[in-house]
């Protein structure tokens, strides 16, 4: 009898553990979807996983939320044209870019990024920073869902307010004050271009101490921003 009771307790314990694991997985899967809906109203100011990390490790961070209308259009144009030129044309994932990357990888080429602004936003909000196929696999459905739930304008607003522009510097308002001592609404085209091209690697690229290569990229970004036209139409409809 004692052996039977012991085996029964072991089975019950194993079943309870499986239930806990399954519930944890369910929460991990559903939480980003619930939060995406919760982040739709403009008065909600989301924080990124990196910002949470900085709080947990007591590093602190600088971030002042700024509404989309209070961000210099030149900055919006520069970031969009540098990071995701087809932002208004796709629904969260640029399948043409993804297919190009896959074809290149099959041909033995070095992997290149195909992340859209929507993919970068959901990564910053819900996922981790280190690269992996698992993270990329999660980015795609989350980006499609976010693009469906949020307007393009709201998506860009969230992205620009959670993007990391340096150690502990999050969002365009904090970045503008940190690098130029002005608000995001007063950024010039050249300043906006430097901030845009520094964004992919802010811990190495400095908007105020640019290398020759970064200066060339900034000039290109400034020119593309000036010619953005219909590429950014969805943000001002």
Automatic annotation (TrEMBL):
Q: Which reaction does it catalyse?
A: [GlcNAc-(1->4)-Mur2Ac(oyl-L-Ala-gamma-D-Glu-L-Lys-D-Ala-D-Ala)](n)-di-trans,octa-cis-undecaprenyl diphosphate + beta-D-GlcNAc-(1->4)-Mur2Ac(oyl-L-Ala-gamma-D-Glu-L-Lys-D-Ala-D-Ala)-di-trans,octa-cis-undecaprenyl diphosphate = [GlcNAc-(1->4)-Mur2Ac(oyl-L-Ala-gamma-D-Glu-L-Lys-D-Ala-D-Ala)](n+1)-di-trans,octa-cis-undecaprenyl diphosphate + di-trans,octa-cis-undecaprenyl diphosphate + H(+)
- The EC number(s) given in the record are 2.4.99.28
Q: Which keywords belong to this entry?
A: Cell inner membrane, Cell membrane, Cell shape, Cell wall biogenesis/degradation, Glycosyltransferase, Membrane, Peptidoglycan synthesis, Transferase, Transmembrane, Transmembrane helix
According to its UniProt entry, one GO biological process term is: cell wall organization
Give the matching SUPFAM superfamilies: Lysozyme-like (SSF53955)
Provide the topology term for how it sits in the membrane: Single-pass membrane protein
Q: Name one GO molecular function term.
A: peptidoglycan glycosyltransferase activity
**Pfam (any one):** Transgly
Its cellular-component GO annotations read:
peptidoglycan-based cell wall; plasma membrane
- Keyword Cell wall biogenesis/degradation among record annotations: yes
Q: Transmembrane: is it a keyword of this entry? A: yes
Q: According to its UniProt record, where is this protein located?
A: Cell inner membrane
Q: What is its main location?
A: membrane
Q: Which residues cross the membrane?
A: 20-39
Start and end residues of each Glycosyl transferase family domain: 61-215
Q: In which pathway does it act?
A: Cell wall biogenesis; peptidoglycan biosynthesis
Q: Which family does it belong to?
A: Belongs to the glycosyltransferase 51 family.
Please describe what this protein does: Peptidoglycan polymerase that catalyzes glycan chain elongation from lipid-linked precursors.
This protein's name: Biosynthetic peptidoglycan transglycosylase
Provenance organism = Hoeflea prorocentri
- Gene (UniProt): mtgA
């Amino acid at each position: 009898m004692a052996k039977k009771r012991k085996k029964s307790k072991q089975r019950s314990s194993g079943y309870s553990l499986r239930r806990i694991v399954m519930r944890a997985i369910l929460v991990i899967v559903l939480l980003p979807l619930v939060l995406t809906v919760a982040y739709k109203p403009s008065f909600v100011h989301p924080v990124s996983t990196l910002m949470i990390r900085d709080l947990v490790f007591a590093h602190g961070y600088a971030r002042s939320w700024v509404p989309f209308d209070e961000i210099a259009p030149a900055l919006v144009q520069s970031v969009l044209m540098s990071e995701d030129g087809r932002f208004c044309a796709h629904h969260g994932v640029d399948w043409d870019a993804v297919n190009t990357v896959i074809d290149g990888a099959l041909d033995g080429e070095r992997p290149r990024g195909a992340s859209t602004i929507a993919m970068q936003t959901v990564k910053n909000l819900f996922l981790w920073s280190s690269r992996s196929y698992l993270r990329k696999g999660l980015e795609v459905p989350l980006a499609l869902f976010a693009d469906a739930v949020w307007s393009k304008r709201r998506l860009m607003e969230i992205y620009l307010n959670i993007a990391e522009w340096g150690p502990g510097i999050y969002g365009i308002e904090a970045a503008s004050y940190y690098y130029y001592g002005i608000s995001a609404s007063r950024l010039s085209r050249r300043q906006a271009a430097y901030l845009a091209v520094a964004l992919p690697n802010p811990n190495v690229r400095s908007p105020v101490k640019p290398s020759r290569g970064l200066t060339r990229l900034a000039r290109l970004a400034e020119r593309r921003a000036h010619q953005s036209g219909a590429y950014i139409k969805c943000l001002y409809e």
